[in-house]
Amino acid sequence: MTLAKLLGYGALFAGTFAPTTPALAQIKSWPDTTYLRAHYQKREVAIPMRDGLKLFTAIYAPRDRSRPYPILLTRTPYSSGPYGPEIYARLLGPGPRFAEAGYVFVSQDVRGRYRSEGHFVHMTPNRSVKSGNHDVDESTDTYDTIEWLIKNVAGNNGRVGLWGISYGGFFAAEGLIGAHPALKAVSPQAPQADWFLGDDTHHNGAFFLTSTFNFMAACGRLGTGAAMTCGKPFDFGTTDGYQFFLGLGSLANADARYFKGQVPGWTEMMEHGSYDAFWRARNILPHLKNVKPAVLTVGGWYDANNFYGALHVFEAIERQSPGTDNAIVIGPWYHGQWARDSGRTVGKLDFGINSSEEYQSRILFPFFEGHLKGTGWAGHPKAWVFETGSNHWRTYDTWPPKESAPRSIYLGAGKTLSFSSPRAGSGPEYEEWATDPAHPMPFVPANSTDMDPDYMAQDQRFADGRADLVTYHGEPLTEDFTIAGPVSPELYVSTTGTDGDWVVKLIDVHPDGFQELVRGDVIRAKFRTSFAKPEPLVPGQVTKLDFVMPDVFHTFPRGHRLLVQIQGSWFPLVDRNPQRFVDIYRAVESDFQKASQRVYRSPSQSSRIVVNVVGSRPIP
I want to staple 354 with a disulfide (CB 3.0 to 4.6 A). Which of 181, 219, 297, 342 is the partner? Predict the structure, then answer.
């Protein structure tokens, strides 16, 4: 995503950037501060943590003291500014209705960012065992912050809510661990959960180049002061990101040419090319046990950053803390869109309703009002999910729906798709193509220097006719076909190399030819059996690759067709695989080689895509 959008998400409703920040200047519809000045008193404090360090905190308390108010807290690495007790944020809280409803709004710079003391650590590892006040993490910082607020903010009602988007969602989820008794409701929105398996920086071990490069270049540099801040977006000197990253060559060149040892997060990643102790320590999911506050996790079907985190935070709490009041909302949104605009469109896709506004008024606002003001929030569904294709909200008592059933979409002869397993035939029972790291497959039709937030909504016809992918076509559907839950490729493949990427895209072909990407993702073959212990492929040997892509909830209407594309690169969204078994972070130019890849579709090696089907119903 563009850095301007990233900064905008950090600022939205949290007052996190000064008015001179370019990201804010682009948001023309934000109100002025007249209402907030009239109804809220701002002060800035440094809240002490148990190890003695202090965290900068901005507090906006209602001027009206006729009744007590709950506290709504957000903790962010993207700044709790604008700074200065007389300089007000333009919006407060997680949505537009909260300021008029009355809350004590609190925004805090996390440890080591902006005006807070300490050292910032990306995806701060949670300490399961704490032997003293020196053992701190984001859960203890949240606990200590709430303890101070309850005791020192006059007129609070003793109830606290916690929320955050993206990196803020990670800090919100951390607050669930060993939560303070006053913390009653938490909404992790697009939370980062695991930077190697599915969020932001990697998917199934494959490195997401554009998003990581841009984020680290702007928000990961060492500053002149003690704390880290976000600076200007990286100056590419061109709008052609494809050629820029191709010219970068090996990943090792990024530090040598541009970062020069000043981006510690990038340096750490380049030192950990497999799922080792470094990455496992940064996986928040195992720690989400015995959760006491109510939880409302929020995600978007088109979230290119942290949809994995939203799904897995919800699932981990369901599995490891079954008594928790735990719910999830998934809308037709790109990253953070639910807090940014009406949610009617993503790219050229028009969903016909203002989905963000419905979520804000019918779900998010009642969630915090009910839990923090004592009105209750009983009887709600487990999942609110937006069904794309039919464009309607649905509710379920489980997610994925328990009434869904697995069904296989088989790759067939003649590059066809079928719901029946393949039969033996004459001739080769595979498709073959060549993947050349010198000419990788682009991920969007136009040049982009970043991960476009709407890339999943862009027409996939730009890939038609290329020789470095294979496309399988289904017949026009005779009835609506609805899938809900994960999409799981099971491929039998081979290559002339010793490593390779396989990118799988499930596409809805509209009658006018528009190719809508329903879900796509990548598996790096060396991680096929273990993310911790990569293994080379044997050239020419058939190998099974199976992996799970993030959930979908989509209806392919009658008359539409299913289409599956399989390719060996997705650039520069994903870095280039040398197609030789090496530590890719330390690869040299001579390691990159062209390779021929095959996908098999015989009765004994029946490649397929497994989906979960929900019973047919007419589209209103």
Answer: 342
